[in-house]
User: Fold this.
Amino acid sequence: MDIPAPISSSSNRFFDRFRSYIRTRGLAYRTEKTYCLWVRRFILFNQYQSPTQLHSGDIAPFLTYLATDRQCAVNTQKTALNALVFLFREFLRQEIPDLNFHRASKTRKLPTVLSVEEVSLILAQLNGHYRLLVQLMYGSGLRVMEAARLRVKDVDLANQALWVQEAKGGRARRTLLPKRLISALERQKACVVEQHADDRAAGYGSVYLPNALATKYPNAPFETAWQYLFPAEGLSRDPRSGIQRRHHIGEQRIQRAVKRASRETGIAKKISCHTFRHSFATELLRQGTDLRAIQELLGHQSLETTQIYTHVVGVHERGVTSPVDSL
Assistant:
């Protein structure tokens, strides 16, 4: 579950204080878990016995170890660096010296993409809400996390738009809502309304709201508009409040369904949920969509991130042919 557990205000444990500080800075729960993971690895690497032993001079050897001994990827090393800089500079208020470390080798890895025909084959192996979720990832460029966390109010059928509110980095955006999915989305919303009515009749019916919205709008957790578009099959206990409520479908369930469907097709590619997002961007590029527009639809902060797809679109699609084809 992606809801942070409560932290006792009286706790003096190091990681409780660190996590509390992260939350006061408004960072995402995923960031909190990632930073804690890397700080733990840093502590184990240096064999610290007490928080008083934490020293910023030990950052560089740890980052070098990740690159040389663990042969980690560039982004992995960057994530570890970000976590440790946050720990020392922000939380411990320690000066960080010039960091001279061995950097992970940067290799350009192109994303796996699917053709329209291959996507159709995978969709044929899926049913119900799993099929609709994959259609949204491919048709709207959603991450699996964004698709799972969609709420009823995020589907704007009147304007044929999809509002991605709980996005990576907290950057909300508007993206495409495929006309072909309108009927399926209307049916899904009807199922949610019926399920929510049953939950309310059973004495439940509230949903988790982020950023203290439930305090500001106490009736909102019970409103249909705030319910998840793809709710979980059963109720679960909120670790912070102890309230029994229905959360959204688990991301791992979607990932497993995609893996099963991909195996059934026999497509010889490494396919994940993110492959559909890559395929969305590549297909738009093939159609001649402006790169800036694709950047906006994907929610990329930098255009450089979006430019990777220009290397995915084949040279034959730019009018270049092989000499052997002329023989």
